[in-house]
């Protein structure tokens, strides 16, 4: 039986409670709508190669045409010789991203000959005509050549759909307990769909998205308890596309079992905005990056639910939320009911739950 390949990343976990004063200077005093993620690009861009580095934790100083120098923290996984792109925003700040040479995506439900609109980079959109031998939920990879032209590289086909792969215990344990707690506290009644009757659910920093079966079954089971909801759409984001095969398995299962559309993309939540949502479920956010929390709050006019390991994380998260929530929002923090009958252990996953109810605000973004 195939097994999951686990890919790990290091993230910052506070050992003491952080406040607004600990945020990057760029983020202090800004409203959520003014965060860099939500400021449009102005079209100016530049490229440079990463020079020889003494170590991985460096800040590059890049000279600009106006004589000033831009401090650029080296993006994760970048190394000597890689090309970085500088993209200027309309507020004169800069977005820094590695230049992409490869782009993978999951083919959505469609027919051969359909044209998909793809956006492998911020400044490039591609039309991809689906070939006859490519089916929904295949994983297609495009490669850029030396001249910048994108070409078809490969198409990976998922194994036949039989029984779902065995999933981690937390999906039916701590994660299920979060959803059940939200229901018991009456939060489902406050979820309102968009004008088309679609409840858009955001799953940021979703990793493998192992929880797809638990979430999908919960949404369908309790749809009638969500006023006006006719269907569901799930959007996820993760920093790298290491898990694209797992995303494809999740998208196939959700569509075939429940007709739930699902799209997960690689993107940097510290620099990229997320689509509008009425319900955001963020498991173990990197709370040391307050701008990510603010951006998620700005994307959501409904419920934002977060879960953390430790009390310092939870308290830091509450401070970040206080900086960026809408004025009328209510905030609730409580311990995961799962641990009422289970041992905490050294690193209790999803121990603290924080719910931000922004359904009181106007549905504007």
UniProtKB/TrEMBL annotation:
One of its GO terms (molecular function) is hydrolase activity. Keywords: Hydrolase. It comes from the Eukaryota. This is Peptidyl-tRNA hydrolase. It comes from Cladocopium goreaui.
């Amino acid at each position: 039986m195939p097994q999951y390949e686990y890919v790990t990343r290091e993230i910052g976990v506070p050992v003491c409670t952080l406040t607004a004063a600990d945020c990057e200077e760029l983020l202090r005093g800004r409203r959520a709508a003014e965060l860099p993620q939500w400021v449009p690009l102005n079209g100016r861009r530049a490229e440079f190669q990463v020079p020889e580095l003494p170590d991985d934790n460096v800040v590059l100083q890049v000279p600009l045409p106006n004589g000033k120098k831009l401090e650029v923290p080296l993006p994760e996984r970048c190394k000597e010789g890689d090309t970085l792109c500088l993209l200027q925003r309309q507020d004169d700040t800069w977005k820094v991203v590695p230049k992409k040479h490869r782009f993978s995506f999951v083919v959505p439900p469609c027919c051969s000959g359909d044209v998909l609109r793809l956006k492998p980079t911020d400044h490039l959109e591609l039309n991809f005509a689906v070939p006859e031998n490519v089916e929904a939920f295949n994983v297609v990879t495009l490669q850029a050549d030396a001249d910048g032209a994108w070409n078809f590289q490969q198409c990976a086909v998922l194994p036949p759909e039989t029984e779902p792969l065995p999933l981690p215990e937390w999906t039916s344990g701590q994660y299920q307990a979060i959803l059940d707690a939200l229901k018991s506290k009456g939060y489902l009644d406050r979820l309102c769909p968009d004008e088309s009757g679609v409840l858009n659910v955001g799953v940021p920093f979703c990793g493998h998205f192992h929880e797809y079966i638990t979430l999908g079954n919960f949404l369908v089971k309790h749809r009638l308890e969500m006023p006006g909801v006719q269907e569901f759409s799930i959007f996820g984001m993760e920093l790298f596309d290491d898990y694209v095969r797992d995303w494809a398995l999740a998208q196939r299962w959700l569509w075939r079992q429940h007709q739930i559309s699902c799209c997960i993309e690689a993107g940097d939540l510290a620099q990229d905005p997320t689509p509008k949502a009425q319900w955001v479920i963020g498991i173990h956010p990197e709370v040391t990056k307050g701008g990510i929390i603010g951006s998620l709050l700005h994307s959501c006019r409904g419920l934002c639910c977060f879960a953390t390991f430790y009390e310092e994380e939870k308290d830091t998260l509450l401070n970040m939320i206080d900086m960026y929530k809408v004025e009328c929002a209510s905030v609730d923090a409580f311990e995961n009911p799962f641990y009422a009958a289970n041992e905490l252990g050294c690193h209790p996953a999803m121990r603290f739950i924080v719910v931000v109810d922004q359904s009181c605000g106007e549905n504007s973004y």
